[in-house]
Amino acid sequence: MVTILQLLVSILILLSFALVVGVPVILVSPGEWERSKNLVYASAGLWFGLVIVTAAFNSFVI
């Protein structure tokens, strides 16, 4: 159970890092926002879902 929680947290950290680096680059690049808008929204939704799943799973571990 703890290993699964550690895996979820690791994925959350990696996705957070990718969003912190990627979103500003997309916003600064001219014309890139229109092409990557769906990817940014999908990634943000995945991040939010992963936060909820990790929090729910954490309540079972402790």
Helix and strand topology:
Elements: H1 2-28, H2 32-61
Helix pairs in contact: 1-2
Organism: Guillardia theta (Cryptophyte)
Transmembrane segments: 8-28, 41-61
Protein name: Photosystem II reaction center protein Z
Plain-language structure description:
The protein is 92% helix and 0% strand. The chain is elongated. By secondary structure, the protein is mainly α. The protein has a single domain (2-61), classed as Photosystem II PsbZ, reaction centre (Helix Hairpins).
Keywords:
Helix Hairpins, elongated, reaction center, mainly alpha, 2 helices, single chain, plastid
Arithmetic mean pLDDT: 94
Rg over alpha carbons: 14 Å
Count of the separate structural domains: 1
CATH class: Mainly Alpha
Q: Largest sheet at a glance?
A: none
CATH architecture: Orthogonal Bundle
Compute the number of helices. Answer: 2
Unreliable spans: none
Task: Describe the global form.
Answer: elongated
The end-to-end span amounts to: 10 Å
* Helix residue percentage: over 70%
Organism: Guillardia theta
InterPro entries: PSII_PsbZ, PSII_PsbZ_sf
Transmembrane segments: 8-28, 41-61
Keywords: Chloroplast, Membrane, Photosynthesis, Photosystem II, Plastid, Reaction center, Thylakoid, Transmembrane, Transmembrane helix
Brief summary of the model shown:
This protein has 62 residues and is mainly alpha-helical. Helix content is 92%, strand content 0%. The longest helix is centred in the C-terminal third of the chain and has 30 residues.
